[in-house]
Amino acid sequence: MPQSRSIQDEEHALAWVGQFAQHAGPRYLQIARFIEQALANGVLRPGDRLPAQRRLATLLQVDLTTVTRAYDVARQRHLLEGRGARGTYAAAAKTELGQLLDLSMIIPPAPAGLDFAELLRQGLAQVLLHTDSSMLMNYHLGGGSAADRAAGALWLAPLFGALEHDSISVCSGAQSALAALIMALSLPGSSILAEPLAYPGLLNAAQALGRSVQPVATDASGMCPEALEQACRQHGATLLYLNPTLQNPTTHTMPAARRLELLRVCARHGVMIIEDDPYSLLADDAPPPLAASAPAQVAHIATLSKCLAPGLRTAFVLLHSAELRARFMTALRALVLMATPLTSALTTQWIHDGSAQRLLQGVRQEARQRQRLASQLLAGRADGAHACAIHIWLELPAYWRAQELAQVAQAEGLAVSPASAFSTGPRAPEAIRIALGSIADEMRLRAALRKLSDLLARHPGQSSSVVV
Do you know which SUPFAM superfamilies this protein is assigned to (predicted)? Predict the structure, then answer.
C-alpha cells in the first residue's frame, strides 16, 4: 500500500512535464515552458507544490543545475514562488495594475525555448572575435559592407535564388528605407497608389514628405488591375506601394497571377513598385515576389525586424538599377547616415552561422501556436488568418464600430488597432487588427484574447462591471 501511494505521488509530481524535444532549446527553458503551459491548461493550479529540485532532476534524468535554472526562469516569469523550507509552489497569476494588454503592436513572437540572452552573447562574441572592435564604433559608407551585402543575398536566396551582392543595400530598418525610396522614386506633391488598407508607416512617410496616398480598389485576389489602370491615368502616379504577402493589416496574400497582371499595368504606365515584404519568409507557401518577375520595375524591402526581432534594425533593399540605387542612397543618407555597424555585424553573423534561420523557424512555429490559440479563444472569428501570420484582421459584429470598440477596450485595459489607422481612403471598414506577438507570456495572451472575446460578444453600452 505505501509503495502504491508513492508511485501515485510520483506520477502526480510529473503530470505537468511534457516531452523534451531535440530542437526546442535548452532543457531548462523547456522545463520552464512545461510549467507555463501546465498553468495555462489547468494541469498545474496556483498553490500546487512542485517537486524539490534534486528530486525533479532525478525523475527527469537531468542535471540538478538544469532544474535550478528552470525554476529560476519560472520565478522570473512569475510562474513559481518559493516558500522557504516548505518548498516551491505554482504561483497565482499576478495582476499588473495600469499595464495594458497590448494587441496593437506587430512584433514577432519569441520562440518557445529561446534564450535570447545566450543567443546575443554567442553572436556578439563571434562578432568581436572576427571584427576589429574600433571599426564597430566608427563611420561607415552607407549601404553596408561587402560582408553585410553578402549576408543580405544569402537571406533573400530562398525567394530569389542567387543575387548580385551589389544590388543589395543594407539599411537601419524598413521605415527609413521606405521613406528614402519615396524620395528617390517620386516628386513632392505627387501621388502614391496603394490598397485601401495599408501599412501606417507608408501613410506617415508620405505625409511627412509631401506626397498623397491614393486608394486603388481591391477584390478577393488583391488590387484590381482595372482599378490600377484607371488610377494611373487619373493621378499620373509614378509609384505604387504593395505589401503582397501576409499583408498588413489584412493578412491577405496576393496570388501569383494577380501579381503578374499588376506588373503589366505598371509597365504600360511607367510606374515603379515598392514591394514591402517583411513576411514572405514566415509563409512557406508565398508566391514569388514581384521583384523576382520584374527586377527593373520593383524595389524590394525585406526587414528582419518584423520576422525575427524588432530590435534587430536591419533591412535589405534590392534594387537592380545602378542609377536608382545611387538615387536611393542619396536620399537614405539624408535620413540615416548609415546602418548601425554593430547591429549589421550581428545580423551578418547570425545569417552566416544559421542562427537567423533557426530563429525564423522558431517564430514561424510560435506563430502557428498563437493562431491556433486565437482561433480557439475567439470562437472561430479568427479562422481566416494564415497559419503563420503574426497578426489577425477581424471584421466586427454589426453592432460594433471599430473606433468605439477600440476605445472601450482601452478603458478596460486592452489595446487593439482600429481599421482607421490603416485607411488610405475616406471610409474605413468596421474591423480591427490584432497583433499576436506583442504579449510574450502565453497566460497573459490568453487573458487578452478572452477579454477581447467577451468584449466582442457584448453590445455597446453593456457593462461588464459588477454592481454591489
Answer: PLP-dependent transferases (SSF53383), Winged helix' DNA-binding domain (SSF46785)
